[in-house]
Every structure is written in structure tokens, then in C-alpha cells.
Amino acid sequence: MADAKEVVRAQVLIVDDEGDHAETMAEALHKPGHICTIVNGKCAAEEELRHGRFDVVITDLVMETPRSGMEVLDLVRQLHPTAATIMVTAHGDIPTAKEALRGGAYDFIVKPLDLVVFRNLVQRAAESVVLRHQVDGLQGQVDAAYGFEGIIGDSAAIRQVITAIRQVAPSNIPVLISGESGTGKELVAQAIHLHSKRKERRFVPFNAAGQAESLLEDQLFGHVRGAYTGADRDREGVFEYGDRGSVFLDEIGDTPLGMQPKLLRVLEKGEIVRLGSNDARKVDVRFISATNRNLQAMIKQGQFREDLFYRLRGVEITIAPLRDRREDIPLLVRHAVGRFARELDRPIPTMSEPAMMRLISYHWPGNVRELMNVIHRMMVSSPASVLQAQDVPSEIHALDEDESSTGVGSLAGLGLDRLEKEAIRQTLALAEGNRERAAQLLGIGERTLYRKLKEYGLR
User: Fold this and answer.
1) Which of 32, 40, 338, 374 has its CA 20 to 30 A from that of 455?
2) 403 pLDDT exceeds 60?
3) Are 11-132 and 156-319 equal in CATH topology?
4) Which CATH class is domain 11-132?
5) Domain formed by 323-456, architecture
């Protein structure tokens, strides 16, 4: 006898301005274990799509306006391109529903719903998303050889970064990568180069931070023999060395004002002048730069040239801090554990749920770099096959407790309702929809959790 087919449990967003109808759909999907979030219109759906992660989106076609459902479909395509969208429509709106299919919807279903047919349709949609992720995973293995290695995550923010990389890489347009320290800006720059037409040429990274202007000029533009005491031969700089390839200038905001016109000349004319020479030399480089500073604020303060800023920012890619994409932390942890197990020549340990929850709840001021260092330390200090909460470095506990006591930190200013809702939704996903287990992880009673699920429209 064949084994029963495993049920795929999905994160489902239900968008319907008829509350009773939405509740009926959520109840139908609860039995097979899907986790449902209910919202009542396009605006609320956009808020959820920007902050949550969903596999399937079910939207009524006609809500605030006759096109509301189509607008939700557009949002899903922009923010969750791998999600499947199911349109719910009245019989008279079938032509519009067919238009939605041409626009990328997975399928549509006509009211009144046959709940068995509806449940099966959602199940097929969820399975299609899993299959798409599996295909993307295989593609990801290929991508790793071409520069995406280390760009780990399945959040909307990371998917947008990877989409942007693929879009800009084939061109020669300058790219400015912004983000806090430790978010992986150089990895993004490498990925752009390795997906470009210049991938067979050099990728030359250079950090402009903390260098004297004269030394910086010499390193970037080179010098001729006799340019200064000790210059006993000609030397090419970074731009000549990277000719016909890509040059990545990290911490571009630290470039002295006196150097900035010379960078502008490279961008506008493709020319450099070596120290001690008057002759311009042609260079052909793809210009990629990065900063963790607010360059527009620096312009207002007279610390950065506005014309250089707009030339650097042909396209801007912003990398979100880790605290704003916590759903990526389990993926990053698993990646790090596997990587360091190979380095340490030991079996790959697992991370206990309390330890994982501690890592997920921490605010990570040092971002991915700090997380990698913490996992490395945990594995060096503990040879156990299961890493426990007590293996998490003490400063992670201390900082987290200090923020809890002061109420100040990286989450300051966010609504408590939003924080609580996201914590419950992510914990339900971690617990695979098991409410008893989720309540234990959250440290609340099951009845309290049930009340909050109803309060937040989660099923």
C-alpha cells in the first residue's frame, strides 16, 4: 500500500472584507495545519506582505474597489514573487479572474465555496510553492558558484536584494550598496561582478576607511617613478589593476573631499592620472561602492559632493539589518553550523529550540558578521551534538536582558502589537502549527495563545 502523501503546511494570508467568509476559509484550512492570517482589505494586506512571509495568498477579487484583488495580486508579485495567489470571485467576475490568471495568479475559485474543493486547491498551491522552492534551491547551488555563496535568507528583503543583483549585473551602471556594518555588502558586490559580462576579469575590493588622503590617492591611482621619495618605479593603482573588471570601493563615505573630484572623473570620463604625472590614462571599470553612512546627510553638512553621490547611485541596493529580517536567522544558523563543522572536522550539531529562540530574539548590532562569530565560538567551546541555550555567549544574554529592562533597543518605536503578532506567527511556524508547543516556546498558557490568535486574526 502506498504511503499517504505528506501534507504541506503553509503560511496563508486571507484578504477578504467579509469577516465571516474569511473566518470560514481560515477554519477550513486549520485542520490540515495551515497557519492563516486574516486581513480585511488591500491596505492591511500590503502591511502584512511587507512585514511577514507567506506561501499562499487568498484574496477576494472585489473589496474596496472592483480592482482591489488585482492590486493585491500586484503586491504579491512585487513582495513575494514565489507565493501562489488564489482569487475568490463571484460568478459574474469570472472574466476578471481569468485576467488575474494571465497576470500571474495561481488559480481562482467561485463563490459560494465548496470547502473540500477550496482546501484541495490551497493544498495544491502550497505544494507548487514547495516545488518552486526546491527548484530555486537547485538554482541556488548553481548561484553559489557564481557569487551568491554567503547571501543566505528567504525573507522578502533578501529576495529583493537577489532580484536587484540579477537585474543590474548585466549592465555597466554604477551600483551603490547601503547597509549597516556586517550585513554583507561585499558579498553583494561580488555577486554583481560574477553575474556580469566582466566575470572573467578581476574583481578588486578596496576599503577607503581610515586612510590618509595622499596614501589613498597613491593606492587608487598609482604613481610614476620619482613621484615622491622612495618611488623608484612606476606602479599602477586599483583602477588600472581592475581595468575591464569591477572595482568595489567600500566605505565610500570616508573618502576625503579632496579626493572626490578625482573619483568623479573616473565615473564621468573613465580617466585617471597617476601621482607625479600630468598624463590622463583611460580605464574601463564597473564602479561598485558601499557605505554604512547617510551620504545625503553628509551632503547637507558639506562632507560629500552631491554630483559624486548621484553618479555613484546609478542604482542603489539597500541591505536590511538582521534585526529586521529575523526569519532569516534559522537559515543563517544552519549555514554557519554546517560551515564550521567542516572547518573543525566534526559532525554537524543541531541547535536546540531554546538556543535558537535566544538567537532569533537578540538584536544583532553587528548583523550577520556578529552572528557568524557567535556560532563559531559556540562550536569551538562546545563539542556536544546539540548546542544548548547555555552555549550561547553570555554577552548575548546580557545585552538582551539589558534591553528588556530599559525598553530601549533596535526595536524601539515599533508597535507592541506588531512585535507580538510577528513573534507568535514565527513561533507557530517554528512549532509547525502545534499550539501547545508554540505556547511553551513563548512562555504563555495555551488559552492565552488561543485568545491572541483570535485577537490578531491568526489561525
Assistant:
1) 32
2) no
3) yes
4) alpha beta
5) Orthogonal Bundle (1.10)
- Spatial distance between the Cα atoms of 165 and 153, rounded to a whole number of angstroms: 15
Provide, rounded to the nearest whole percent, the portion of the chain with pLDDT above 90: 45
Supply φ then ψ for residue 297, to 5 degrees. Answer: -65, -40
Per residue in 222-232, pLDDT (tens digit) is 999 988 888 88
Domain boundaries defined on the chain: 11-132, 156-319, 323-456
Distance CA 284, CA 270 (A): 6
**pLDDT reading at 41 higher than 50:** yes
Three cell numbers, residue 44: 492591511
Sign of the C-alpha dihedral computed for residues 428, 432, 436 and 442 taken in this order: negative
Q: What angle do CA 438, 439, 443 make, to 5 degrees?
A: 120
CB 108 within 8 A of CB 86: yes
How far apart, in whole angstroms, are the C-alpha atoms of residue 52 and residue 307? 37
Average model confidence (pLDDT) across the chain:
84
Q: What integer pLDDT is reported at residue 372 of this predicted model?
A: 94
3-state secondary structure 36-86: EEEECCHHHHHHHHHHCCCCEEEEECCCCCCCHHHHHHHHHHHHCCCCEEE
Residues 176-222: tens digit of each pLDDT: 999 999 999 999 999 999 999 999 999 999 998 878 888 899 999 99
> How many whole angstroms separate alpha carbon 205 and alpha carbon 243?
13
pLDDT of residue 252: 95
Q: What CATH number does the domain located at 156-319 have?
A: 3.40.50.300
Confidence (pLDDT) at 136: 52
The three state secondary structure string of the chain is CCCCCCCCCCEEEEECCCHHHHHHHHHHHHCCCCEEEEECCHHHHHHHHHHCCCCEEEEECCCCCCCHHHHHHHHHHHHCCCCEEEEEECHHHHHHHHHHHHCCCCEEEECCCCHHHHHHHHHHHHHHHHHHHHHHHHHHHHHHHHHHCCCCCCCHHHHHHHHHHHHHCCCCCCEEEECCCCCCHHHHHHHHHHCCCCCCCCEEEEECCCCCHHHHHHHHHCECCCCCCCCCCCECCHHHHCCCCEEEEECHHHCCHHHHHHHHHHHHHCEEECECCCCEEECCCEEEEEECCCHHHHHHCCCCCHHHHHHHCCEEEECCCHHHCHHHHHHHHHHHHHHHHHHHCCCCCEECHHHHHHHHHCCCCCHHHHHHHHHHHHHHHCCCCEECHHHCCHHHHHHHHHHHHHCCCCCCCCCHHHHHHHHHHHHHHHCCCCHHHHHHHHCCCHHHHHHHHHHHCEC
pTM of the full structure: 0.61
